[in-house]
Design goal:
The protein has helices at residues 2-23, 30-47. By secondary structure, the chain is mainly alpha-helical. The longest helix has 22 residues, at 2-23. The radius of gyration is 12 Å and the shape is elongated. The chain starts with a helix and ends in a 9-residue tail after the last helix. The mean pLDDT is 92.
């Protein structure tokens, strides 16, 4: 459950960043995007920010 929530939040964050980067013609590869989702998922699991369970 914690991993699923962390992945969900990471995908949302990385998705927003990827959209902005693409608009600025600075898109990254799908592999790099997935690596960042994995990295951010792990960071969220260990740091568990105060808004961890909130969907934004």
């Amino acid at each position: 459950m914690i991993i699923a929530q962390a992945r969900k939040k990471a995908q949302a964050i990385v998705g927003k960043v990827a959209t902005h980067m693409a608009l600025e013609n600075q898109a990254v590869s799908p592999d790099r995007t997935q690596q960042e989702v994995t990295r951010l998922t792990n960071e969220l699991i260990y740091e568990m920010p105060s808004d961890f369970w909130e969907d934004k």
